[in-house]
Fold this sequence. Notes:
Blueprint: E1 10-13, E2 17-24, E3 28-32, H1 39-42, E4 47-51, E5 55-59
Antiparallel strand pairs: 1-2, 1-5, 2-3, 3-4
Amino acid sequence: MEEKAELGNVIEFGDxxxxxxxxxxxxxxxxxxxxxxxxxxxxxxxxxxxxHKRYKVIANSxxx
Length: 64
């Protein structure tokens, strides 16, 4: 089983998108994508929902 994200983790999903986990739900996480340097050029919402099966944890909250 893949590592499940925790509050404050940085995750990667989609085509290289990254964000900080703000809320962990049963089947998904809510991610703040303003973490990315190129956020303004992406024309997307500040937060998005990502299924647990569709991301990988790239930095733990303790490492920040």
